[in-house]
Amino acid sequence: MQKDVNKSKSENNNNVKPMTSSLTNQVGAVPDLIRVAPDLNGDTLVWDVDVSDITSKRSVKKPVLPSEREDILTDYIPPTVTTTYSQIAARKVMDQKRWICMSRPQYSKSCGISSVVSCWKLLFSTLGHGSLSPITQEEALLFLGFKPPFGEIRFGPFTGNITLMRWFRQLNDHYKVKGRCFNLYKPQGKNKTSGLTSDEALVILKKGLEDPNIAFIYHCQNHYFCPLGYEDTPCKAEQAYSGELSEEDYNTWLLIGDPSRRHPCLHCKRWEDISVDLNCTNPDYVDIRRLEKGLQKRNTKKVGGNLHCIMAFQKCQMPQTHASRRTQIPVLGGAVKRSSSGGRPNTSPARSSSPPQPAGGSPISPASPSSSRFGFVQKDIKSGSESAFNFQNKNLGNLKKNPNDLDYEKLIASQMNNEDEDEVCEDDTETESVISND
């Protein structure tokens, strides 16, 4: 039987004709690419394909000899720590109370009220930097007129930027505290924060994250969440523990707390990406929580404008009560001035050079229009000084171009009246996970 197998194998091998060089003379043959190896054993046929012309030639680096490597190591001096704890802490800012006050998890589509409650607790409750008892999002919803089950309420169609500000003021009135809220940075859309650049807005945001009396809400694509801190990361590895850095030597990353359980509790996003998101106009948009999708387009006919912005919520001091108050109403008639002897009043037609004063006190500064609309009275300001709350009426072009030299208080005051129309947050059409209730 073994002889028959060997005989059949030899017959099959004899039937296979080895390919010779005559193949190169046929039409369509590629003589330079295909070479036929000689059939030494008479059992195999080998094809050798030359692909050197269609493959990229990689340059081979010359290996570094051990002797040369030792010379390099002996000449290298590693960087030393030239910074202090306070300088590193100035780069890495994170108030844990902001994170503690985050209302997480939220109800379905309740990111707006959950973010407002988080800011309110930070400013006024004992969990944050206040003295009142903390409140839950359920208490706030009941006070605002909502009834359970809260998970069935479609907040998206009626929750907008002005809605969040109105809820914040209603909570302040209910608990008898004073606060104000405004659009901090909204470069696109109606009532945009004109005159404020991206670098200046970053200065305000970073200073505000160090201030216990102010909180922020970031309106991104179909969602509201709260910035909690930031880090100025050096661009070069050697500068990780160096001293003060210039603006070109670091990138700013924001730490943002998310009330939704379907996403991480903390997001870390570059300010450059956030600025791109805020400066997009319809139909283009960027989803800051899903940057891997890149620049997207909305299915809308509206062109121009953007709902995305950063809102600020600030705690104010309680108003001081005064017996009388100066007003900004112009005097149309002659000023009435009584003589020091108590005689008849002097009815000179000339306007009085000095404003009327309360008994035994200095002139009282008028309450600015912006302060009255936010429900608090401006503190007394010395004569001749500029009111910070009237700064929005000044020319913002006089600001210094270096963001580090900007006046934080004036920049905050300049944005107080930048409120937008009640542009609602679009309803999120994403399907929820089976185990998620957000």
UniProtKB/TrEMBL annotation:
Protein location: Nucleus
Regions of compositional bias (Basic and acidic residues) in chain numbering: 1-10
Entry GO CC: nucleus
Biased composition (Polar residues): 338-347
Alphabetical UniProt keywords: Nucleus
Region (Disordered): 1-22, 323-375, 415-438
Biased composition (Low complexity): 348-373
UniProt signal peptide: none
Composition bias type Acidic residues, residue spans: 418-431
Native source species: Mytilus edulis (Blue mussel)
Bilayer-spanning residue ranges: none
Keyword hit for Nucleus: yes
Protein name per the record: Basic immunoglobulin-like variable motif-containing protein
